[in-house]
Amino acid sequence: MVNLFVQKGGSGNITYVLLHGLGCSSDVWRGLISVIEKKKAGKWIAPDMRGHGRSEWQDSYALGHHATDLIPIIRTEKSIFVVGHSMGALVAMVLATGIFDLSIKGVLGIGPKSDWPAEERKKLIAFANKPTRWFKSREEAIERYLLVSGLKGILKPGDDRLSSAIFQGPEGFRLSADPKTVAVGGPAKGLYAAASYASNIRLACGEYDNVTTIDGLRTWDPDAVVLRGLSHNAHVEDPNAVWSVIQSLENNPSG
Questions:
Q1: Which among 30, 154, 198, 238 could disulfide-bond with 98, CB atoms 3.0 to 4.6 Å apart, if both were Cys?
Q2: What pairing do the DSSP bridges indicate for beta strands 15-19 and 43-48?
Q3: What's the pLDDT tens digit per position in 50-91?
Q4: Measured in whole angstroms, how far is the alpha carbon of residue 241 from the centre of its chain?
Q5: What domains can be seen in the chain, in order of their start residue?
Q6: DSSP string spanning 78-119?
Q7: What percent of the chain has pLDDT over 90?
């Protein structure tokens, strides 16, 4: 059993399960958590998924393993709304297929990658097999993290949300995320279709998302939402905009 670092809070009948993207940690959800708590909307659970943040590294990072890790944490929740970003959106779809018999009220997937060219997939696999990169200073490691996470220009290097993104060891500083986690990706149109049969699901992406496109997402979800003026990390840039989409889905479960 994988030992995940999990943050929890709030109160109420609905539980918002917040799943971060590749290379990140649960700290990226602080803005949305603040909205949930300010509105007293419900409980929230935000884990660092395997190989990320303060959670343990593992030999495999398949979507099914990520999803299975979460079951002991959320199985007793009575009404679940899953919000997943990028990789987390794919994990959310696995949870939403119905195979775990969870009480899922809705799913919002933000910025899942819709197109996986074979050449790009090969590059990711090659990267996953490279040795861990160490940096001489924390500042260098943070600069690298901001770049690869797409958070450069969104979070400042001194932001405390970056504290879980960097690990200090005997060789210096490295990113907390295991490089092998990049091998998790792959075409997920069929996964979305399976999730949509069992759950109320909506996809969204920032207007300037450089990882996915609204046209690509609409080949899966014809009603996918554009988050105007935002990029791939829309949930960090403007949590209120993301909350509006969640509310819309909650208030109009048929779509």
A1: 198
A2: parallel
A3: 999 999 999 999 999 999 999 999 999 999 999 999 999 999
A4: 16
A5: 5-117+183-251 (3.40.50.1820)
A6: SSEEEEEETHHHHHHHHHHTSTT---EEEEEEES------HH
A7: 85
